[in-house]
Design a protein that fits this description.
alpha+beta, 4 strands, elongated
């Protein structure tokens, strides 16, 4: 695996959540800088062997916007 993708969403209570596609990895943080650190740390913890660890982490931001008609 050369890349892992995380879906980034606004958390209901504030901050952000990150959920990996295809892996059981989830983390959250209050701001984007901290979230990036938490995602890197979560990937390192999940893939202990550096040879199998993804080289790239892609953050895919998902935002819902509701407008009145």
């Amino acid at each position: 695996m050369t890349e892992i993708v995380f879906l980034i969403e606004d958390a209901p209570e504030g901050g952000y959540t990150a959920r990996a596609l295809g892996e059981s990895i989830f983390t959250e943080a209050d701001n984007l800088d901290r979230l990036r650190e938490e995602v890197r740390d979560a990937v390192r913890c999940h893939f202990l062997d550096e040879q199998t660890r993804p080289k790239l982490i892609r953050l895919h931001f998902v935002r819902d916007e509701v407008i009145a008609s």
